[in-house]
Design goal:
Shape: elongated
Strand content: over 45%
Distance between the termini: 31 Å
Length: 202
């Protein structure tokens, strides 16, 4: 959906909204996930601190560095990789474009996009895990929903174009484009034993 308006002085402004939704995206998933011991504020934990062998870890009482994960859901098997069509994505963006036609064949414009993409893990292929695309704990899949690895929040571009005066058997234009965009998001460390590196935590 776009609204375009012409203004005096050979100017125009367009403002639009873009929204997309995708479902049933192929994603690598752990078919035999680790058992969850419990939850702290809605987040699962997978180990007990030494001072509290039946309770959850805390900032002051964390799990031992030698603590291992609980057994798998089915201890008979180890890791089970399975491809599922359970991933989804959401994309919403506000787009703005301003153009101006000057005299003597000179024109220019500015475009800006403010966007956010959410998903359950991003990758270039549905079977890879290198980009954080794999789901290791499908029991708490809702925690994986967050800003996608390919999401660009801000994208700015400016352009200038000059139309060379028409000569016999020659027509030409000279143009230049400047572009800037936001970078990748950062990750932060957190308490060991509590699954808090999920995208929704950042």
């Amino acid at each position: 959906m776009t609204i375009d308006r012409q203004f005096p002085g050979n100017q125009s402004l367009a403002v639009g909204y873009v929204g997309t939704r995708a479902i049933h995206i192929v994603q690598l998933q752990e078919g035999n996930p680790t058992t969850i011991l419990g939850y702290v504020n809605g987040r699962p934990y997978y180990c007990h601190p030494a001072d509290n062998p039946t309770g959850p870890p805390t900032l002051d009482d964390q799990c031992s560095t030698t603590a291992g994960f609980p057994p798998k859901s089915n201890p008979t098997y180890g890791i089970v990789n399975q491809n599922t069509a359970a991933s989804e994505t959401w994309y919403n963006a506000l787009q703005m474009k301003w153009t101006k036609r000057f005299s003597h064949g000179l024109s220019g414009g500015i475009t800006y996009t403010w966007a956010k993409m959410l998903d359950y893990g991003s990758g270039q292929q549905g079977v890879e895990a290198a980009a954080g695309e794999a789901v290791l704990f499908p029991q708490v899949r809702f925690l994986d929903k967050g800003i996608g690895g390919f999401s660009i929040a801000s994208n700015f571009k400016a352009n200038v174009m000059y139309r060379v005066p028409t000569l016999p058997n020659f027509q030409g234009r000279i143009a230049n484009v400047l572009g800037m965009k936001s970078g990748d998001r950062h990750r932060i460390p957190c308490t060991s034993g509590i699954r808090c590196l999920s995208p929704d935590f950042l």
